[in-house]
C-alpha cells in the first residue's frame, strides 16, 4: 500500500553559535489519503521543524536537512525538488495553516487578493473566475458577507476570522495534504472549538489529509485518526488515536495526557506534572531523550537509546520498559500496569 | 525491527525479582548501529527523575553583545571595512608626524608631479605633497564626521527619548518642532551660520548638527514608544523602578544597537556633506584642507593631472563605502531575527 | 461568607480608553468584587473582554476612570504620601503573560530579580536571589545567565521569582500559563499553589482557560466585554453554571478522550465578541445568545444573587 506522504529518517539540524542543534533526529512516519495525523509534543521537540521540512521551508544556511532523509509525496522524494517544483508543490499539493493568524497575513493586502493570489498562480483561470472561487472559499470557511469581506484588510478581521482566512488560503487549490501548525493555540477556547469543527468539516468534504501539530492532546482527541508523540526530535510513540488515548505505552504520552487538569479534581490539589524542561538539542542526551524527566527512568535509559517496540500493527513506542529484562526485573507483563498508578 | 536479540543464557524468574546486587549472569547482546551493547539486569535499576539534569541549561552563556560581536566577526566584508577604517584613522593621527613632508611644504620646482618614490601620491599644482595632505585633510573630514555624529546622536537620543517616554502633549509639541526643522534646507542653515561665525570647521559642524539629529530623534521616539508596550517595562513599573532607572537600564540598552547602526550610517553622510560644502567653497578655507577641498583643487587640473583628483576622491568614496558596509554588517549582527 | 476584612475591594470599577476619533473603548465597565487574604479569585473571559485591563488597573498601572479600589482598607487613588505609594507597590506584584516579552533581554537573571529588591531596599543581596531561584525550582548557579537561554516555563518561573523578591502580599497573575505548553502549565500552577500555601499569598488569577482557573481559584468571575456576567465559588460555577456564556465556555474545554470528545455536545456559540467601542445599553452577550428577549436589548442586566454567593447578570434567568 502506498501512502500519500512518507517521511523516512528525517533529520534536520540548525547551525548556531552554540554548535549544531539537532532539531529533528530521525523521524519516520506516514500519512494516508484523507486521514488526520496529529503530531503532539512540547515546544522545541521538533514538530514545527518537521512540518517546515515537509513544506520545504527549512531556511538555509542555518538550517540543514540531512542527506539520508527522505520525504516522499505520492512516491516521489520531494527533498530532491528544484525551486520551481517546490513552488508548484506548495499550495497545489500541500497547504499550510500557521499558528499565528495575526502575523501570517500580509497587512497591506486586501483579503480577497491574498486568497486569489494562490488560485491564479496554480490554476489557469481568469481573474473573474478566481474572484468567484475566492467568494466560494470564504463561504466554505463560514465567513459572513464574503462579497464585502474580500475588499477588507486583515486588521478589520478578528483573530478567529483571520484563522478562517488562513484556512481558505490553504484550501485555495484543494491540496491533498494540509499541515496545520498549532492552528488554535493563539485563539480563545470558544473560537478554538469553531475552528476544529471547520477543519473536520472541510476534511469530510475535500477528503484531504491533515497533519495537525499541537502541544495539547485535548485538542486532537476529537479529530485525529492517528497520533505521533514527539519528544526531543524523535517520535517516542505512534498509534491510532484510540491506542494513544486509551492505552498509552510510553511514560511521556501518559504524562502528557495527565497534564490536562481534570475538572473533577479537587481544587488546588497537586496536578500531575512532567518535571523539568525538555533537553537542549545542542547536546542531545546519549540515551533516551526523556530519561532525566521520567519517573520510571532506569540506568540503561541514560546510557543507550531504546529501540521501537511494536505493540500492535499500528502502535509502536520506544522505551526501555518494554524490554524483556525490564519486564523480568520488575515483574510485569504489560507496561500499562506500571505507568498507570 | 533492525536489531537482533540474542539471549545468551536463560534464567529462572524467582531470582530476578528486584535484585539490587550486581547480576551479570543473565545478559543480552543487542546489535545497534554497528556496536555491541551488553545489557545487564543491573542496568535496569530504577533511577527516577534527575532534577539537576532535567533543568539543565546546555548552552554556553552568551550576552547579546558577545553574540553580536561573534556574528560581526563572521561577516568578512564588515571586518575588512572595519580594518580599513581603523587604518585610515591611525594614519590620520600618526602619518603627519612620521612622513618626511609637511602638508604645506611647497616644492615649486616639481608642481603637478605624478607618483614617485619620494612623493607617494605625487604633488599638486602648488608642489605640495598629496600623501601628506590626504592625512591632514582626513583629520578634518573624519573629525567632522565623528563629532557631528556624536553630537547629533546625543541630541537625537535625548530628544527622541523624552518625546517617546512622556508621550501625550509633550510628544506632540516636540514632534511638531522636529517637523519644522526637517523642512529647513541645510544649505540655508550652513550659509546663515557661516555668515555669523565665518567659514570654517566649527561653523560647519554647528550647521550640520542643527539639522541632522532629527532623523535619529524620530527613530528613537518610535523605538521607545514600541518598548513602552513591552511587558518588562510594565514589570519594572510594577516593581516601583524610578523613571530615570527605567530609561537607563531598560530602554537604553534595548535601543543601543539601533543607535549604533544609525550612527554608523550618519558618519558617511557628514563626511560627504563636508566634502560637498568644501568642494563648492562653503566649507574649509585654505591653508587648512580637507578631502573635499583637495578634490575641488584637483578637479581644476583633472584633464592633465588626474592623480590630484583621484586620491582625495578615492579617500572620500572608500571611507564612505567602508562606513556603509560596516553599518550593514552591524545591522545584520544586531538583528534579533538572525539570532540563533 | 467570611468575617475577615477583604484584602482587595473593587467597587464599580470603570476604565475607559479614549480612542480619539473612534470614540470611547469601555474596557472595564462597572466591575465589583472582593478578594480575601490567602484566597485566589479567578477572572475568565475571551481576549478583549477587559480582564487584563482590570488587573492592571487594580495594580495602579492605569488610573481608573471611575470607581474605587481599596487595598487593605485604603483607597489606592487617594494615596498621596510617597511612602504609602512605595509601600503599596511593594505589596502588590504582577506575573505576566508572555515569558518572552516580560524579561529584559539585556539583563542577567540575577539583575532581573534584584531590580525590585534594590528599589524597595529588601535586604539579602545575592543570597536571597539564590534562595528565590531555588524556591521556583531553578539552579542557583544561573544568576549570570540571560533570559534567552531558558525555556518558556523556566522564564515564567524567573518572572515569578522577580515578583516574589519584594515579599508582596497580593499578586496579579495575568494569563501566566496561556503562552506555555500544557505539560509546563501544570508545573507553574503547582508552583503558584505551593507558594500561596507557604507565603500566604493572595492571587488574582486571569486566564481564558476555564479548567485551570477552576483548579486554582476559590472564586471565579466570568467577564464578557468589560462586565462581570457571573461570579461564584469555583466549584459552584463548575457544577451549576447559570449564565449561558459560562455554560458555553465550559462545554468548549477540550477533553483528551476521543470517545467523549466525539460524542460530547458543544453548546454552539456562534460568532465572536463584538466591539467594546461605543457600545450602547442592553446585555452585551445578546448578539450571541439564542435565548435573548426584547428586554435584553433595553437595559444592561445587573448581578443578582441566585444562590449563596452565586451572582449572575442575565435578564432571562431573572425572569425564569
UniProtKB/TrEMBL annotation, chain A:
One of its GO terms (cellular component) is plasma membrane. The keyword ATP-binding applies. InterPro entries: AAA+_ATPase (IPR003593), ABC_Ni/Peptide_Import (IPR050388), ABC_transporter-like_ATP-bd (IPR003439), ABC_transporter-like_CS (IPR017871), Oligopep_ABC_C (IPR013563), P-loop_NTPase (IPR027417). Residues 5-257 form the ABC transporter domain. Gene3D superfamilies: P-loop containing nucleotide triphosphate hydrolases. Keywords: ATP-binding, Cell membrane, Membrane, Nucleotide-binding, Transport. It holds the Pfam family oligo_HPY. One of its GO terms (biological process) is peptide transport. Its main location: membrane. The keyword Cell membrane applies. One of its GO terms (molecular function) is ATP binding. It is found in: Cell membrane. It is a peripheral membrane protein. It comes from the Bacteria. NCBIfam families: oligo_HPY. Belongs to the ABC transporter superfamily. This is Oligopeptide transport system ATP-binding protein. It comes from Anaerocolumna aminovalerica.
From TrEMBL, chain B:
One of its GO terms (cellular component) is plasma membrane. Residues 138-327 form the ABC transmembrane type-1 domain. Pfam families: BPD_transp_1, OppC_N. PROSITE patterns: ABC_TM1. The lineage of its organism: Bacteria, Bacillati, Bacillota, Clostridia, Lachnospirales. This is Oligopeptide transport system permease protein. Keywords: Cell membrane, Membrane, Transmembrane, Transmembrane helix, Transport. It comes from the Bacteria.
UniProtKB/TrEMBL annotation, chain C:
NCBIfam families: oligo_HPY (TIGR01727). InterPro entries: AAA+_ATPase, ABC_transp_ATP-bind, ABC_transporter-like_ATP-bd, ABC_transporter-like_CS, Oligopep_ABC_C, P-loop_NTPase. Belongs to the ABC transporter superfamily. One of its GO terms (biological process) is transmembrane transport. Gene3D superfamilies: P-loop containing nucleotide triphosphate hydrolases (3.40.50.300). This is Oligopeptide transport system ATP-binding protein. One of its GO terms (molecular function) is ATP hydrolysis activity.
Amino acid at each position: 500500500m502506498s501512502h500519500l506522504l512518507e517521511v523516512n529518517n528525517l533529520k534536520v539540524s540548525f547551525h548556531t553559535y552554540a554548535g549544531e542543534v539537532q532539531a529533528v533526529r530521525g523521524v519516520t512516519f506516514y500519512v494516508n489519503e484523507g486521514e488526520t495525523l496529529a503530531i503532539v509534543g512540547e515546544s522545541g521537540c521538533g514538530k514545527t521543524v518537521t512540518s517546515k521540512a515537509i513544506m520545504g521551508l527549512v531556511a538555509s544556511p542555518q538550517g540543514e536537512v540531512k542527506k539520508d532523509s527522505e520525504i516522499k509525496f505520492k512516491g516521489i522524494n520531494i527533498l530532491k525538488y528544484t525551486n520551481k517544483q517546490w513552488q508548484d508543490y506548495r499550495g497545489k499539493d500541500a497547504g499550510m495553516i500557521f499558528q499565528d493568524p495575526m502575523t501570517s497575513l500580509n497587512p497591506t493586502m486586501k483579503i480577497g487578493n491574498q486568497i486569489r493570489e494562490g488560485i491564479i498562480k496554480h490554476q489557469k483561470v481568469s481573474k473573474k473566475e478566481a474572484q468567484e472561487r475566492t467568494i466560494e472559499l470564504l463561504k466554505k470557511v463560514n465567513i459572513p458577507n464574503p462579497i464585502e469581506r474580500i475588499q477588507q484588510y486583515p486588521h478589520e478581521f478578528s483573530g478567529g476570522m483571520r484563522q478562517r482566512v488562513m484556512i481558505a488560503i490553504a484550501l485555495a487549490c484543494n491540496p491533498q495534504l494540509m499541515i496545520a501548525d498549532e492552528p488554535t493555540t493563539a485563539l480563545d477556547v470558544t473560537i478554538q472549538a469553531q475552528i476544529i469543527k471547520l477543519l473536520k468539516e472541510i476534511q469530510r468534504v475535500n477528503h484531504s489529509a491533515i497533519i495537525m501539530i499541537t502541544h495539547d492532546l485535548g485538542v486532537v482527541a476529537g479529530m485525529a485518526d492517528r497520533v505521533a508523540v514527539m519528544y526531543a526530535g524523535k517520535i517516542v510513540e505512534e498509534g491510532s488515536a484510540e491506542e494513544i488515548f486509551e492505552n498509552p505505552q510510553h511514560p511521556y504520552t501518559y504524562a502528557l495526557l495527565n497534564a490536562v487538569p481534570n475538572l473533577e479534581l479537587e481544587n488546588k490539589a497537586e496536578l500531575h506534572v512532567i518535571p523539568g524542561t525538555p533537553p537542549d538539542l545542542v547536546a542531545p542526551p546519549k540515551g533516551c531523550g526523556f530519561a532525566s524527566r521520567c519517573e520510571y527512568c532506569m540506568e540503561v535509559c541514560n546510557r543507550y537509546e531504546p529501540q521501537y517496540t511494536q505493540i500492535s500493527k499500528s502502535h509502536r513506542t520506544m522505551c526501555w520498559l518494554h524490554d524483556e529484562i525490564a519486564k523480568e526485573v520488575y515483574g510485569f507483563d504489560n507496561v500499562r500496569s506500571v505507568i498507570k498508578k | 525491527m533492525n536489531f537482533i536479540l540474542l539471549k545468551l543464557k536463560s534464567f529462572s524468574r524467582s531470582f530476578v525479582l528486584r535484585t539490587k546486587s550486581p547480576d551479570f549472569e543473565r545478559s543480552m547482546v543487542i546489535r545497534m548501529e554497528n556496536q555491541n551493547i551488553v545489557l545487564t539486569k543491573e542496568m535496569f535499576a530504577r533511577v527516577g527523575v534527575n532534577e539537576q539534569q532535567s533543568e539543565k541549561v546546555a548552552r554556553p552563556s552568551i550576552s547579546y553583545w558577545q553574540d553580536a560581536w561573534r556574528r560581526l566577526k563572521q561577516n568578512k566584508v564588515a571586518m575588512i571595512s572595519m580594518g580599513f577604517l581603523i587604518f585610515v584613522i591611525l594614519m590620520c593621527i600618526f602619518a603627519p608626524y612620521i612622513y618626511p613632508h609637511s602638508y604645506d611644504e611647497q616644492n615649486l620646482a616639481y608642481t603637478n608631479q605624478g607618483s614617485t618614490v619620494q612623493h607617494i601620491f605625487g604633488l599638486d599644482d602648488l608642489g605640495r605633497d598629496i600623501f601628506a595632505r590626504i592625512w591632514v585633510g582626513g583629520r578634518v573630514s573624519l573629525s567632522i564626521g565623528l563629532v557631528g555624529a556624536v553630537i547629533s546622536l546625543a541630541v537625537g537620543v535625548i530628544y527622541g527619548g523624552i518625546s517617546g517616554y512622556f508621550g501625550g502633549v509633550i510628544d506632540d509639541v516636540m514632534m511638531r518642532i522636529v517637523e519644522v526643522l526637517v523642512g529647513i534646507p541645510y544649505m540655508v542653515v550652513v550659509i546663515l551660520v557661516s555668515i555669523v561665525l565665518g567659514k570654517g570647521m566649527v561653523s560647519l559642524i554647528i550647521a550640520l548638527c542643527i539639522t541632522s539629529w532629527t532623523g535619529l530623534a524620530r527613530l528613537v521616539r518610535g523605538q521607545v514608544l514600541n518598548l513602552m508596550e513591552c511587558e518588562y517595562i510594565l514589570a519594572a513599573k510594577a516593581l516601583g523602578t524610578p523613571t530615570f532607572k527605567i530609561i537607563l537600564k531598560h530602554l537604553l540598552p534595548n535601543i543601543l544597537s539601533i543607535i549604533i547602526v544609525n550612527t554608523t550610517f550618519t558618519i558617511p553622510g557628514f563626511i560627504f556633506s563636508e566634502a560637498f560644502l568644501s568642494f563648492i567653497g562653503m566649507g574649509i578655507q585654505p591653508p587648512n584642507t580637507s578631502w573635499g577641498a583637495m578634490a575641488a583643487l584637483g578637479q581644476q587640473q583633472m584633464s592633465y593631472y588626474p592623480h590630484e583628483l583621484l586620491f582625495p576622491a578615492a579617500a572620500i568614496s572608500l571611507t564612505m563605502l567602508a562606513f556603509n558596509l560596516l553599518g550593514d554588517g552591524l545591522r545584520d549582527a544586531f538583528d534579533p531575527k538572525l539570532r540563533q | 461568607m467570611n468575617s475577615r476584612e477583604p484584602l482587595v475591594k473593587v467597587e464599580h470599577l470603570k476604565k475607559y480608553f479614549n480612542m480619539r476619533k473612534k470614540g470611547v473603548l469601555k474596557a472595564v465597565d462597572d466591575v465589583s468584587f472582593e478578594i480575601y487574604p490567602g484566597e485566589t479569585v479567578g477572572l475568565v473571559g475571551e481576549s478583549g473582554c477587559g480582564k487584563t485591563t482590570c488587573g492592571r488597573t487594580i495594580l495602579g498601572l492605569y488610573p481608573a476612570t471611575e470607581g474605587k479600589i481599596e487595598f487593605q482598607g485604603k483607597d489606592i487613588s487617594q494615596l498621596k504620601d510617597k511612602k504609602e505609594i512605595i509601600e503599596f507597590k511593594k505589596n502588590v506584584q504582577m506575573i505576566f503573560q508572555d515569558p518572552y516579552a516580560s524579561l529584559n533581554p539585556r539583563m542577567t537573571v540575577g539583575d532581573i530579580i534584584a531590580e525590585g529588591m534594590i528599589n524597595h531596599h529588601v535586604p539579602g543581596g545575592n543570597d536571597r536571589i539564590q534562595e528565590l531561584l531555588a524556591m521556583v525550582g531553578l539552579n542557583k548557579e544561573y544568576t549570570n545567565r540571560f533570559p534567552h537561554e531558558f525555556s518558556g516555563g523556566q522564564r515564567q518561573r524567573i518572572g515569578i521569582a522577580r515578583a516574589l523578591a519584594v515579599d508582596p502580599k497580593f499578586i496579579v497573575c495575568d494569563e501566566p500559563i496561556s503562552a506555555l505548553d500544557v505539560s509546563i502549565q501544570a508545573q507553574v500552577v503547582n508552583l503558584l499553589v505551593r507558594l500561596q500555601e507557604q507565603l500566604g499569598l493572595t492571587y488574582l488569577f486571569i486566564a481564558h482557560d476555564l479548567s485551570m482557573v477552576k483548579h486554582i481559584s476559590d472564586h471565579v468571575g466570568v467577564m464578557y466585554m468589560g462586565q462581570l456576567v457571573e461570579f461564584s465559588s469555583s466549584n459552584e460555577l463548575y457544577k451549576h453554571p447559570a449564565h449561558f456564556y459560562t455554560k458555553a465556555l465550559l462545554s468548549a474545554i477540550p477533553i483528551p478522550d476521543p470517545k467523549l470528545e466525539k460524542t460530547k455536545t458543544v453548546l454552539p456559540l456562534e460568532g465572536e465578541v463584538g466591539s467594546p467601542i461605543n457600545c450602547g445599553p442592553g446585555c452585551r452577550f445578546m448578539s450571541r445568545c439564542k435565548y435573548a428577549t426584547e428586554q435584553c436589548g433595553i437595559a444592561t442586566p445587573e448581578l443578582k444573587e441566585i444562590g449563596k454567593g452565586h451572582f449572575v447578570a442575565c435578564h432571562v434567568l431573572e425572569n425564569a
